[in-house]
């Protein structure tokens, strides 16, 4: 009897302490006079995300819609962690650009451990402060316009092989449907394999490419770590060993055969000579380039094929524009392809509707007091976190006419006015803008050219959900649940 009484007493005390702890955590925003949805015990405002019923970005869109007419910034809780949600485009622009020094790190900075995870710890995405700045500069210098122009024939070769792969698959089965993400991954894997390691990734010739397999394993590991928000190894040892081996062999082959190519590998070799870089640093730069060009680019490319399949008017207009600009495939040049306005419009319209990353986050690195339109002031302190609802802004009918519709013509006068107003940022904005933006656009434009010129694209409506949703199992990336399934019909232009 005494044992039971003691047990119940201890349980009651534990429950009371737990309730007191959560209740204290949930006073964070009220104590700062910041409005927001009322949290519930344990879950905060993220019950549905916790149980994988809805994606995180869908829930923060609810908050955005609730407060967009009355507030510039609100607060919500993910379990007990408080987040500021930026609603005003002007405030978003201010934090990403003008006040960047106060928000120079993202929340995922610090997920990796330099001792346990030496390769990923040197990726600019997870680096902080001056270390981030130094490594970003090293990587960015390998993605100049001149270097990308030199790499264009390599990307172009993969684009041609992409079209040949679709043709071969159709010859085997005319009725075959293709998962848009899966074929996009094959293409992006082979482009980065060629530009980084100087090899054929085998994505179009093998049922399962080892590079794709290792790349996917690395992505899953990073995603799991990001969901936990705890420092852990982002790159499994066997994946690290694989990429170290690839880098060693690529450099050895290039040196032994006196090969001269102005690609990203040549840039890494040059950095080694200038800065006496270690093997791990070289591999880290290669993996940084690989992640941007392999995963993020494929997630951005897949919805473009889907939107073109859904919108025949746009697809036909784009094909006509490309054939007029390049009567023969041999007429395609780097400058003309990148300067094609309608192709640019199509890409940015898809990125507006389906940005590869569903939201952006920043961690305050220096205390700052924000002055709001209503003369109210909010002080955000070092270590506190802000969320930027990319999809909510880019699909807001107050900023875009018919925001759910795919209308590339809305950018006929350029995208600058939308970017200047803080309404379009699929690659991020400010000094921490996506490092691989230029290369990604080159990849995507090349793929679209060769596929649209050679095939008529349609959506397989039996396999593709009518209302696509972001997979709740994902955290950051915009991967559609069930996939986007396409049919291709070979044409002559």
- Main sheet specs: 4 strands, mixed
Total discrete domains: 2
Shape: globular
Helix content: 40-55%
Mean pLDDT: 90
- CATH fold node name of the largest domain: Cytochrome p450
Q: Looking at the chains present, what oligomeric state does this protein adopt?
A: single chain
- Gyration radius, rounded: 24 Å
> Low-confidence parts, pLDDT < 50 over ≥5 residues?
none
CATH superfamily of the largest domain: Cytochrome P450
Q: How far from one another are the termini?
A: 88 Å
CATH class category label of the largest domain: Mainly Alpha
Kindly name the structural category: alpha+beta
Strand order of the largest sheet: 1-2-7-4
Name of the CATH architecture of the largest domain: Orthogonal Bundle
Strand content: 5-15%
Query: Got a strand count?
Result: 9
Count of helical stretches: 17
H/E element sequence: HHHEEHHHEHHHHHHHHEEEEHHHEE
Protein traits:
493 residues; 4-stranded mixed β-sheet; 9 strands; single chain; 3-stranded antiparallel β-sheet; 8% strand; Cytochrome p450; 2 domains; alpha+beta
Give an account of the 3D structure:
It is a single chain. The protein has 493 residues and is of the alpha+beta class. It folds into 2 domains: 1-115 and 358-425, Cytochrome p450 (Orthogonal Bundle), CATH 1.10.630.10; 118-333 and 434-493, Cytochrome P450 (Cytochrome p450, Orthogonal Bundle), CATH 1.10.630.10. Helix content is 51%, strand content 8%. The protein is built from 17 helices and 9 strands. The chain has helices at 2-25, 47-50, 56-67, 89-98, 129-140, 145-172, 180-197, 210-228, 237-256, 264-275, 279-310, 312-325, 334-339, 341-353, 390-394, 416-420, 437-454; strands at 73-78, 81-86, 178-179, 360-363, 368-371, 377-380, 385-388, 455-459, 485-490. Strands 1-2-7-4 form a 4-stranded mixed β-sheet. A hairpin with a 5-residue loop joins strand 5 and strand 6. Helix 11 (279-310) crosses helix 14 (341-353). The termini are far apart. The model has no long low-confidence stretch (mean pLDDT 90).
């Amino acid at each position: 009897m005494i044992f039971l009484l003691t047990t119940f007493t201890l349980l009651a005390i534990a429950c009371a302490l737990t309730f007191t702890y959560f209740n204290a955590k949930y006073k964070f925003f009220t104590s700062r006079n910041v409005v927001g949805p009322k949290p519930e015990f344990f879950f905060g405002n993220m019950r549905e995300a916790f149980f994988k019923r809805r994606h995180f970005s869908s829930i923060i869109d609810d908050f955005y819609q609730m407060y967009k007419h009355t507030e510039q910034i609100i607060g919500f809780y993910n379990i007990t962690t408080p987040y500021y949600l930026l609603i005003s485009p002007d405030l978003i622009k201010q934090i990403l650009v003008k006040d960047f020094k106060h928000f120079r790190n993202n929340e995922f900075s610090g997920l990796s451990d330099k001792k346990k995870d030496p390769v990923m710890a040197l990726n600019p995405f997870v680096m902080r402060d001056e270390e981030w700045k130094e490594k970003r500069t090293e990587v960015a210098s390998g993605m100049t316009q001149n270097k990308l122009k030199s790499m264009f024939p390599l990307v172009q070769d993969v684009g041609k092989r992409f079209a040949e792969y679709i043709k071969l698959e159709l010859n085997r089965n005319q009725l075959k449907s293709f998962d848009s993400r899966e074929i996009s991954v094959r293409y992006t894997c082979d482009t980065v394999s060629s530009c980084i390691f100087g090899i054929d990734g085998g994505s179009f010739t093998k049922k399962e490419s080892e590079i794709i397999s290792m790349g996917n394993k690395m992505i899953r590991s990073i995603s799991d770590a990001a969901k936990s928000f705890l420092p852990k190894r982002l790159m499994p040892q066997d994946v690290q060993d694989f990429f170290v081996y690839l880098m060693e062999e690529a450099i050895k082959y290039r040196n032994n055969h006196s090969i001269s190519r102005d690609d990203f590998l040549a840039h890494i070799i040059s950095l080694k000579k200038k800065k006496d870089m270690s093997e791990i640093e070289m591999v880290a730069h290669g993996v940084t380039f690989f992640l941007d060009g392999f995963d993020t680019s494929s997630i951005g490319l897949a919805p473009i094929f889907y939107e073109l399949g859904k919108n025949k008017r746009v697809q036909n207009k784009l094909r006509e524009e490309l054939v007029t600009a390049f009567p023969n495939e041999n007429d395609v040049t780097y400058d003309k392809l990148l300067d094609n306005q309608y192709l640019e419009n199509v890409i940015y319209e898809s990125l507006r509707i389906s940005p590869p990353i569903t939201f952006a986050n920043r961690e305050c690195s220096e205390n700052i007091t924000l002055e709001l339109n209503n003369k109210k002031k909010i002080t955000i302190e070092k270590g506190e976190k802000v969320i930027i609802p990319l999809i909510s802004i880019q699909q807001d009918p107050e900023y875009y006419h018919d925001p759910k519709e795919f209308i590339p013509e809305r950018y006929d006068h350029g995208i600058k006015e939308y970017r200047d107003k803080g309404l379009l940022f699929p690659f991020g904005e400010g000094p921490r803008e996506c490092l691989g933006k230029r290369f990604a656009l080159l990849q995507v434009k090349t793929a679209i050219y060769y596929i649209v010129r050679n095939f008529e694209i349609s959506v397989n409506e039996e396999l593709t959900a009518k209302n696509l949703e972001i997979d709740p199992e994902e955290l950051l990336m915009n991967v559609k649940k069930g996939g986007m399934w396409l049919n291709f019909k070979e044409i002559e232009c």
